[in-house]
Q: What sequence folds into this?
């Protein structure tokens, strides 16, 4: 581990332990799972409005203390329910969190906002970041705390179907990208947060890398009013067909099954059930409410480890024209982001293949994008997230400071 990474992680830990002793929001929302919390159930029909409009909001708690759940000091927190759109353009409600440091911003211009896009959580509502961030059980909470320590505000979307009713559209990039951009809009439209017209960055890894990459591609046409300064898209599953080929028969094949559920939800005509055998239907029924980092989630990973698609299907749906067309429609690389992108990836990533991520950055570069591509030699998927974190924060910090960057497309 580099000296710089040790220093950053040490600062994050010390900050969390020290600030946790301070008081947060006194009138915070009840800390019950979304399935028991009417806040997450949107009105039907949705009220008139536009993407990013807030349907409802309330104070909440952000904590890194899983035992006493002591509020993280120096930060105001709100849960929000806001308007977004499905991949096919239907209006939907999505939940999320807005976090703002209480200390006055002393940098140039307005306080920056980071729309943070989380990695894989699972399919169950209890996996929603707006809930796990209130429990001190979110595995990315220290990355979020590091951003807050820079004085930046942070907005975290739950994405479609996590927390709110309906199944999570896991790894459907078009939906995730919209949720990220509309989360930034919602944060800027929350009066108490005082973030209107804030310079904005996007940061995500793994599933969050997909979300960040899609937000980067959509931003110019979908949310042109956002003052987007830069995007970090790390460990990106850019081409799900390539990712599926890598996962089939591996320890992590459960992630592919989750994506199948996500696509079946986003595109009901795909009709996943007709491809499943009895074993596949049993797995589907078991996994629909599972959170990855839970007892049931770990058990599902072990139960499915090293299995093949053919163990759960009568016909492989990924070999059909219908499924291939939908997967290809959510493949990244067709449009060049209009802002600088930092794209880190672990050389020995055992979950998200390096080759398809390399092809994404080359595709973006060929279209004229400003991309900084960096690989981490002594890293697999998790170490890739840890080792790239300091570089991600530095990249966003430079963009918020107005420093130019040329990327390294010419060197690849």
A:
């Amino acid at each position: 581990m580099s000296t710089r990474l040790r220093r950053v992680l040490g600062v994050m830990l010390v900050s969390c332990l020290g600030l946790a002793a301070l008081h947060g929001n006194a009138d915070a929302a009840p800390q019950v799972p979304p399935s028991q919390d009417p806040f997450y159930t949107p009105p039907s029909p949705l009220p008139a409005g536009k993407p990013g409009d807030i349907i409802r909001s309330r104070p909440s708690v952000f904590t890194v203390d899983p035992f006493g759940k002591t509020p993280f000091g120096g930060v105001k927190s709100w849960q929000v329910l806001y308007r977004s759109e499905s991949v096919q353009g239907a209006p939907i409600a999505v939940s999320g969190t807005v976090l703002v440091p209480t200390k006055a911003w002393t940098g140039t211009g307005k306080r920056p906002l980071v729309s943070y896009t989380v990695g894989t959580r699972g399919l169950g509502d209890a996996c929603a970041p707006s809930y796990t961030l209130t429990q001190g059980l979110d595995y990315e909470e220290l990355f979020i705390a590091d951003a807050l320590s820079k004085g930046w505000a942070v907005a975290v979307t739950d994405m479609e179907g996590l927390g709110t009713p309906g199944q999570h559209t896991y790894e459907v990039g078009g939906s995730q990208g919209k949720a990220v951009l509309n989360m930034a809009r919602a944060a800027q439209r929350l009066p108490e947060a005082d973030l209107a017209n804030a310079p904005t960055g996007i940061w995500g890894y793994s599933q969050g890398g997909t979300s960040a990459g899609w937000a980067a591609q959509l931003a110019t046409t979908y949310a042109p009013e956002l003052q987007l300064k830069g995007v970090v898209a790390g460990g990106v599953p850019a081409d799900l067909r390539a990712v599926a080929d890598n996962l089939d028969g591996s320890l992590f094949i459960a992630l592919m099954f989750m994506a199948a559920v996500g696509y079946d939800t986003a595109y009901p005509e795909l009709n996943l059930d007709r491809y499943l055998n009895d074993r596949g239907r049993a797995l589907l029924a078991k996994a629909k409410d599972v959170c990855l980092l839970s007892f049931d989630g770990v058990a599902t990973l072990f139960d499915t480890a090293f299995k093949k698609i053919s163990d759960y299907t009568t016909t492989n749906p990924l070999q059909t024209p219908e499924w291939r067309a939908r997967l290809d429609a959510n493949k990244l690389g067709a449009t060049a982001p209009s802002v600088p992108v930092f794209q880190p990836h672990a050389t020995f990533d055992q979950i998200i293949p390096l080759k398809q991520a390399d092809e994404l950055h080359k595709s973006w570069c060929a279209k004229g994008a400003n991309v900084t591509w960096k690989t981490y030699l002594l890293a697999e998927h998790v170490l890739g997230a840890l080792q790239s974190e300091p570089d991600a924060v530095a990249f966003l910090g430079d963009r918020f400071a107005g420093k130019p960057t040329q990327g390294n497309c010419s060197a690849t």
Notes: The chain has a mean pLDDT of 91. The two ends are 26 Å apart (CA to CA). Strands lie at 54-59, 75-85, 91-101, 113-117, 153-157, 199-205, 227-234, 341-346, 371-376. The CA atoms of residues 280 and 312 lie 4 Å apart.
